[in-house]
Hypoxanthine/guanine phosphoribosyltransferase
Amino acid sequence: MLERLKRSLLEAPIYKRGDYNYFIHPITDGVPEVRPDLIREVVTHIIRTANLDVDKIVTIEAMGIHIGTALSLSTDIPLVIIRKRRYGLPGEIEVSQVTGYSKGQLYLNGISPGDRVIVVDDVISTGGTALATLEALKAAGAQVVDVVAVIERGSGAERLKGQGYQIKTMLRVDADEGGVRILD
Ligand SMILES: O=P(O)(O)OC[C@H]1O[C@H](OP(=O)(O)OP(=O)(O)O)[C@H](O)[C@@H]1O
Ligand code: HPA
């Protein structure tokens, strides 16, 4: 299962962002190229395992967009993209995002109170982005029925699960200077 994803992760180069060993991969970076067979494998898996009884798919700029788009095209469910840019629209919700190597602001538009949503993203590491996303969706009055990250590294997903959030991940990995290791 997920053979293309596993194979491609084992080939992912690492570069240092401060102390953080950042792996570079088609799903998480769009580099060197996003192959249709890989994205199809990922989205097929999400369709098989996620709760898609939702009004909207929510993803986060930038590297959730290709996954969210492919899922939206396959399911005919609209896509809402949380942006890193302020639009100043009425009801826009701003939250702070902290990852293992960056800090910034996220801006949510397009969610109405009571909307049932699934959150999809490429990777969960510290969980900072997922937490900011869930805070924004709570403020918007959305009902989050599922959260799916393709790749899990580090302890963020477990930490969020400990806080009562339902998080699904497809593959757990570790990354150090030597490369990516697949944990399951
Ligand atoms: O669990 P975390 O530590 O928060 O890391 C996960 C987040 O990091 C990446 O986003 P990033 O903000 O680097 O932006 P990008 O999608 O534009 O590459 C990735 O797309 C996730 O959203
Ligand atoms: O190591 C990583 N690679 C790509 N995207 C990421 N987002 C958090 N960590 C990573």
Q: What stands out?
A: The CA atoms of residues 93 and 139 lie 7 Å apart.
